[in-house]
Amino acid sequence: MEIDATIIRWLFLTISPDIFKTVIREGDDAHTVWTKIKGLFTNNKLQRIVFLQQEFFGTPQGDQTLDAYCLCLKAISDELHDLGFRLGDELLLSTLTSGLSEDLDNAASNLTLMANPTFECAVDYLRLDERRLKGIRARAVHSALATGFSHGTPPPPRPPAPTAPRASSADAARWRRWHSQPPSRPWRSQRRTSPRVHAGTAAMEWRL
Question: What is this structure's pTM?
Answer without folding.
Answer: 0.52
